[in-house]
C-alpha cells in the first residue's frame, strides 16, 4: 500500500513510519523545510520526502497527485509542550487539515486515518468509550473534535474511509524531554531530585510503538469511525514515577507532594480499547516493559544496570 504520512518526524510519526516500512508499505512523508528528521535516522533512503508545510497547498497538490497514495495517516498538528492547549495555532492546524483532506479526495486516496485526542471527551464519565459524550476543555481539544466531525462528513460525501484515532497518554523512546516520563528519567539518571504532586491522578499510558501499530492497523483494515488508542489500564502518576525510580534504582530522588495539583487536571482518564481490538490489534508492551525500553534508549548514561 502507498501511504502518505504527515508529521512523520514527530514522536508518534517517526514510530508510525518505521512500522509502515516494517510491514512493507511504500511511504512518502511530509517534513518541514530544513527539518533534520533526527528521529528517522537510518530510514531516509527508504522513504520519499516532501519538504514543505500543510499550508503549501500547491506543493501538496502536485506531490500527492504524483504519488497517488492509497491511504494517508495525518499526524501533523501544533503540539508544543506547555503551549499547545490554548494556542490559536490550533485553528491553523484545523484549517490546514481540512484543506489536506480535500486534496487527498481529489487525488483518489481511499483511506484517511487522523490523530485525535482523549481530551475531546467529557472526562467526568470515568472509563471513556467511543460513544462517551464530548466536552473539549481547551482550544486544542475543540479543534481536534471539529476536525473529526468535519473530516468524517467530507469523507462520507467523497466516498472515502475516514478513521479517527483518539490517542491517550503515549510515552516511549524519542519523546520530547519536556514531557513527564522523559523528564523524570533524565533527572533520575543525572542524580537530580524530581519534584511531583502526590500523584493520585489516574492515567492511561500506552507505549508509542503500540500507538504506531494501531494507526497501521486502522489503514490496513480500511477502518472508519472513532477508535480509542489506549492501553485500557488505569495507572496512577505515583505508580508510574515509582516504577521509573525502581528501574533506575533512584526512588529516593522522587519528591511526591512537592508540587500542588493543577486545578484543571481531571482525576481519572482511561480508555476502553475494545473497538480497536476487534480489528485484531493488541498492545505489546506492559508499562514495566515499555519504561524499561525507554530508559535503556535514553541518551543519558545509566548509573546502574537496569533489569526487568
Structural class: alpha/beta
Order of helices and strands: EHEEHEHEEHEEHEEEHEEHEEHH
Poorly predicted regions: 301-308
State the major sheet: 7 strands, parallel
Q: Give the helix proportion (percent range).
A: 25-40%
Q: What overall form do the CA principal axes indicate?
A: globular
> Distance between the terminal alpha carbons, to the nearest Å?
37 Å
CATH topology of the largest domain: Rossmann fold
How would you sum up this structure in a few lines?
The protein has helices at 11-22, 57-67, 89-107, 139-158, 180-189, 208-220, 237-248, 274-277, 287-296; strands at residues 2-6, 26-31, 48-51, 71-74, 111-117, 127-128, 161-167, 169-171, 194-196, 202-203, 205-207, 225-229, 235-236, 254-256, 270-271. With 308 residues, the protein is α/β, with parallel strands linked by helices.
Amino acid at each position: 500500500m502507498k501511504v502518505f504520512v504527515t508529521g512523520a518526524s514527530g514522536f508518534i510519526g517517526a514510530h508510525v513510519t518505521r512500522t509502515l516500512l516494517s510491514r512493507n508499505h511504500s511511504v512518502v512523508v511530509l517534513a518541514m523545510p530544513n527539518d533534520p528528521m533526527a528521529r528517522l535516522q537510518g530510514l531516509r533512503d527508504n522513504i520519499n520526502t516532501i519538504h514543505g508545510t500543510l499550508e503549501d497547498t500547491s506543493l501538496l497538490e502536485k506531490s500527492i497527485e504524483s504519488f497517488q497514495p492509497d491511504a494517508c495517516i495525518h499526524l501533523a498538528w501544533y503540539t508544543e509542550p506547555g503551549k499547545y492547549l490554548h494556542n490559536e495555532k490550533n485553528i491553523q492546524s484545523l484549517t490546514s487539515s481540512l484543506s489536506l483532506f480535500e486534496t487527498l479526495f481529489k487525488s483518489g486516496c481511499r483511506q484517511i486515518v487522523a490523530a485525535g485526542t482523549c481530551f475531546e471527551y467529557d472526562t467526568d464519565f470515568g472509563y471513556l468509550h467511543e460513544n462517551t459524550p464530548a466536552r473539549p476543555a481547551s482550544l486544542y481539544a475543540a479543534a481536534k473534535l471539529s476536525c473529526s466531525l468535519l473530516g468524517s462528513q467530507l469523507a462520507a460525501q467523497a466516498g472515502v474511509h475516514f478513521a479517527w484515532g483518539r490517542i491517550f497518554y503515549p510515552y516511549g523512546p524519542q519523546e520530547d524531554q519536556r514531557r513527564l516520563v522523559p523528564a523524570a528519567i533524565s533527572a533520575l539518571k543525572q542524580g537530580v531530585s524530581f519534584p511531583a504532586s502526590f500523584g493520585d491522578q489516574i492515567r492511561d499510558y500506552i507505549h508509542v510503538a503500540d500507538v504506531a501499530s494501531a494507526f497501521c492497523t486502522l489503514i490496513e483494515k480500511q477502518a472508519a469511525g472513532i477508535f480509542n488508542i489506549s492501553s485500557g489500564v488505569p495507572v496512577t502518576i505515583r505508580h508510574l514515577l515509582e516504577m521509573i525510580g525502581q528501574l533506575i534504582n533512584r526512588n529516593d530522588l522522587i519528591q511526591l507532594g512537592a508540587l500542588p495539583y493543577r486545578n484543571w487536571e481531571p482525576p481519572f482518564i482511561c480508555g476502553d480499547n475494545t473497538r480497536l481490538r476487534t480489528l485484531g490489534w493488541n498492545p505489546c508492551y506492559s508499562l514495566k516493559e515499555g519504561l524499561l525500553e525507554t530508559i535503556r534508549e535514553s541518551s543519558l548514561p545509566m548509573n546502574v544496570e537496569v533489569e526487568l
